Amino acid sequence: MTSSTVENGEATVPLDADRPRALLEIRGAIPARYYWGAGLGFIGLFLLGWVLLTELGLVSPIFLPPPAAVLQELVRQVQEGILWQDVSASVYRITVGWLISTAVALPIGILMGNFRLFEGLFEPFIDLVRYMPAVAFIPLTILWAGVGDTQKFIILFIGTFFQEVLMIMDNVKTVRYELIQVSYTFGLNRREVLFHVVLPAAMPGIWDTFRITLGWAWTYLVVAELVAANVGLGYRIMRAQRFLETETIILGILVIGVLGLMTDYSFKLTYRWLFPWVVRESQGE
Amino acid sequence: MGRPIKLLAQHVWKVFGSGPRGQAVVAVEDLSLHIHANEFVSLIGPSGCGKSTFLRMVAGLERLTRGEIQVDGRRITGPGADRGMVFQSYTLFPWLTVRENVRFALKKQDLSRQAQEEAVSHFLHQVGLQGFEDAYPAQLSGGMRQRVAIARALVYRPQLLLMDEPFGALDAQTRLLMQELLLRIWEEDRTTVLFVTHDVEEAILLSDRIYVMTARPGRLKAEVAVELPRPRSLLETESSPRFVELRRHLLALIREERIGPNPVGGA
After folding, report:
1. Does A187 touch chain B (CB under 8 A)?
2. Do A105 and A14 share a domain, yes or no?
3. Is the peptide bond before B137 cis (omega within 30 degrees of 0)?
4. Digit-coded pLDDT (tens) for A144-171
5. What number is the average pLDDT over the span A33-52?
């Protein structure tokens, strides 16, 4: 290991940078190129395994098509405009559905986090609904709203809202009480403390809640589209299953993964831009 | 003393958990004290004796169970900008820079932007933080954060400054530097201060008078006039015979409180 036995700072002591470093030091820092290299290498290894498995004929293409077939399907869908149609339908649904959920969850979560009365008012009901699986509401929502966008919005709302509102409540509650108390000593009234202290302090946490709930929303959207839809990424997957178009299924799953990654990343980037003052210990540099 | 009385507390009680089911805990019992204008008074006692609770009642952050507290002859009913407070824990707003944190305290003061900037610069200079105006609290050391907190509590010129073990979370070296800093600032503008600590030496060094509290339930045990000449300095004051005598006297008073059925550690 890398422990140095020399305790005084004499010239014979080797420079810290020259010492060999253990890659598996518990919680130890490692160079960024190892960190990213390992992650990309793993994905590369995964792709290589996929290629070998399919090209060597170990698995029937009906169960697992080779990457080239999936790529071909991507090209076809882009040329025929199907991909754009599906992506825009799904992105539209998730955006509207998530925004409705968030527009309701934000004020209610803030009220619940600040005022015990609102917490007492809403929490028993929310806890009850929260444990009802959103997916089980699909038949009911089709009955209510058909198979169009409205039904997707309802499923997204049921799946997202009840978790999101409790998470926002917790984000508000983590604001340290001393920050509120010290603000009172400056002569601020309750409304000013709420808007000038509690909300700015809770905002980074709330932003993370947005990011996490949007990720869940993708799952609910695809499930809703799998059951009943005539356009959208989930619909494309369901239809492909009927005709054993495995490469279409895999492409659909990959596209959803990439879209999810992109939204996640854009929230992380805006987080850094909006809250430069937050110091995160795990920010590797 | 012919100076007017700034803070007057009369028969103050604080009982926690006196509801129908909870076991009542008497935190402060029949406490009466006063502070003259421009006086620096410390409240010392063993941990958990209710001294911080009392301070928070003066700040208006905690309700009194019984009794009355007056500032400038007016009964206090809640928190207000006439009383500033420095907490033991860090209370800077992490999303604001040092300058913005101090200026935040001026929100409710009727000052022009320029007057605000001047006041902020003045107090940041006093606590020795010029050059750090645009840093965020997360970039500062513990001692620097408490210096910002002190500047922020002074900038709106409260009638009474309440300090709740403000140096309690700092390391020993930093604490000494902060005591000297506070001494210097206070001897310049002599704001009335009520200072809560369990550090006897800190209390003697800074104060004009010291109130000693008993262990729970917190009652007043003794009142000691410091009578050390000002301006003081850490080295000279701490080596004077009067300091040594006071220290021995106060430690003996506090030790009496510790040796009971349930001795409390700390200090």
Report:
1. yes
2. no
3. no
4. 999 889 999 999 999 999 999 999 999 9
5. 94
Domain shared by A137 and A20, yes or no: no
Assigned domain for A283 exists = no
Nearest 5°: CA angle at A238, between A233 and A241?
Answer: 130
Sequence-distant (6+) residues with CB within 8 A of A55 are A66
The answer on A10 and A32 residing in a single domain is yes
Question: ipTM greater than 0.85, yes or no?
Answer: yes
pLDDT of residue A272: 93
Determine contact, residues B249/B227, Cβ cutoff 8 Å. Answer: no
Q: What are the boundaries of each domain within chain B?
A: 1-82+159-267, 90-157
The total number of structural domains in chain A stands at 2
Looking at residue A118, which CATH number applies to its domain? 1.10.3720.10
Contact assignment for A185 to B83 by CB distance below 8 Å: yes
Q: Has residue A143 been placed in a domain? A: yes
The residue of chain A nearest to residue B86, with distances taken between CA atoms, is: A182
Mean pLDDT of B132-142: 93
Q: How far apart are CA B114 and CA B152, in angstroms?
A: 17
Please tell me the distance from the alpha carbon of residue A69 to that of residue B190, in angstroms, as a whole number: 82
Q: How far apart are CA A151 and CA A55, in angstroms?
A: 42
Question: If you measure CA to CA, which chain A residue comes closest to B98?
Answer: A277
- Quote the strand ranges of chain A, DSSP E: none
Task: Please indicate, yes or no, whether residues A129 and A76 belong to a single structural domain of this protein.
Answer: yes
Structure tokens at B76: 């206090």
Residue burial B253-265, b: 16+ Cβ < 10 Å; e: rest: bbeebeeeeeebe
pTM of the complete model: 0.85
* Whether A275 and B95 lie within 8 Å, measured CB to CB: yes
Q: Which of B93, B136, B138 sits opposite A179 (nearest CB)?
A: B93
Say if A53 falls within a structural domain: yes
The 3-state DSSP class for residue B35 equals strand
Q: Are both A98 and A169 inside the same structural domain?
A: yes
A172/A79 same-domain check: yes
Q: Find, among B178, B118, B113, the residue nearest to B150 by Cα.
A: B178
- Pick the last residue of a domain from A18, A41, A60: A60
pLDDT reported for residue A17:
61
pLDDT digits (tens, 9 = 90+) for A213-268: 999 999 999 888 988 888 999 999 999 999 999 999 999 999 999 999 999 999 99
Which residues of chain A neighbour B108 with C-beta distances below 8 Å?
186-188
Domain span holding position A163: 67-274
From its phi and psi, is residue A52 left (phi > 0), alpha (psi between -120 and 50) or beta?
A: alpha
Q: What is the pLDDT of residues B245-254, one digit of tens each?
A: 999 999 999 8
| Whether residue A71 sits in one domain with residue A27 | no
**Tens digits of residue pLDDT in B227-240:** 999 899 988 999 99
Last residue of one domain, picked from the residues A60, A83, A105: A60
B1-82+159-267, which class in CATH?
alpha beta
**A263 found inside a domain:** yes
Output the pLDDT for position B164.
Answer: 95
